[in-house]
Structure formats: structure tokens, C-alpha cells
């Protein structure tokens, strides 16, 4: 990973992005883990501060920045759009992850964001949770479901998507500019 740091503390990172697609639902989905109190809830009228909290807690280690750079109006418009579906995973009553789907057209549903918070990673929830996201995507009735991941994401992300049935379609290199700690604090205080 090549990185350049600016005077503000932000870094420019190079990443290889992989776009994957699935053109038919899986034959079966991973079973719900037993022995845990869990709930997956679709969010309607989500407060912006809660979305930013989820996005930061899930994506901080993986350098997610795009949604944190959106102003209040743009983020509210996105979250209130009928083409957006955000669902939050709660484990033992605590937020533990989320996924965000966006209907790009009648043909395509994109899994825009998917991930677990640090306390839920490595607990055996990832495969089931991805299955729940894919099932929710297909429930919107698209012709295909797509997702993108990159070399800055969790090291197991690409393999997990492929295990679920996604197939790589194309790859490209991109630069990503991280947030400095001051920028992150200012966004999260909104």
C-alpha cells in the first residue's frame, strides 16, 4: 500500500478495486447463528448522526471516507431515497454492523456498504450477515446484485463475496484520501 501524508494528517492511499456481480440468487443462505440474541432491523428516517456513527465504526479500519464527506443535505437525500435500504445488525442489544443497498436501476441492486463493527469481527457472524444482505438485495427484484471491494477492505472480504456467489467482473486502481483525525472529529460532531 503506497501512502502519502499531507500536512493536515490525511493520507492518499492506492487501492485495487474489484467490482463483483451475481446474476442469480444463491441456492441457499447461511443459517442464522444460534445462541445469540440478534436482530436485523431496516432503518427508516435514520438520523444522520446515527448513520455517520455506524459508518465510522464499521469502516474506520478500512478507510471508509466517502459518506463522511457528504454534507447533511446530500446524506439526508441519499438516506431518504426510496432506492436506499439500510439495515442494522444488533447483537445482544448493541449495534454490531450494517449494510446499505441501493437500487441503481430496475436491473441492478448494489450492496454499497457492508460490514461488522470491530467487536463483532471474528465471532462467526460475517457469512450469515452477508447472506442476509444478499437476500435483502434480491428481495428488491433486480436482474443482478453487485458489490465492490478493494485491497483496503478486510483481507477476507473478496473471498467472502466470492464464497457467497459473486464473480469478479473488472478491477481498477484508485486513490483514496483518508480523513485526518480533526476532519473525522468535526464530521462526527455534526
From TrEMBL:
Keywords: Acyltransferase, Transferase
Entry keyword annotation includes Transmembrane helix: no
Residues annotated as domain N-acetyltransferase: 41-190
InterPro entries reported for this sequence: Acyl_CoA_acyltransferase (IPR016181), GNAT_dom (IPR000182)
Enzyme Commission code: 2.3.1.-
Top EC category: transferase
GO molecular function, one term: acyltransferase activity
Protein's name in the database: GNAT family N-acetyltransferase
Amino acid at each position: 500500500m503506497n501512502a502519502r501524508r499531507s500536512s493536515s494528517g490525511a493520507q492518499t492511499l492506492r487501492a485495487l478495486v474489484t467490482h463483483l456481480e451475481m446474476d442469480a440468487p444463491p441456492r441457499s443462505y447461511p443459517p442464522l447463528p444460534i445462541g445469540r440474541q440478534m436482530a436485523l432491523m431496516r432503518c427508516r428516517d435514520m438520523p444522520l448522526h446515527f448513520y455517520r456513527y455506524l459508518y465510522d465504526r464499521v469502516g474506520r479500519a478500512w478507510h471508509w471516507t466517502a459518506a463522511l464527506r457528504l454534507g447533511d443535505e446530500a446524506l439526508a437525500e441519499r438516506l431518504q431515497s426510496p432506492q436506499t435500504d439500510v439495515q442494522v445488525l444488533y447483537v445482544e442489544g448493541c449495534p454490531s454492523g450494517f449494510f446499505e443497498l441501493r437500487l441503481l436501476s430496475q436491473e441492478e441492486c448494489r450492496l454499497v456498504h457492508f460490514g461488522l463493527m470491530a467487536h463483532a469481527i471474528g465471532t462467526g457472524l460475517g457469512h450469515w450477515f452477508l447472506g442476509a444482505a444478499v437476500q435483502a438485495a434480491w428481495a428488491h427484484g433486480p436482474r443482478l446484485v453487485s458489490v465492490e471491494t478493494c485491497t483496503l477492505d478486510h483481507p477476507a472480504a473478496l473471498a467472502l463475496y466470492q464464497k457467497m456467489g459473486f464473480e469478479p467482473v473488472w478491477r481498477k486502481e484508485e486513490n483514496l484520501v483518508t480523513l485526518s483525525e480533526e476532519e473525522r472529529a468535526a464530521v462526527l460532531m455534526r
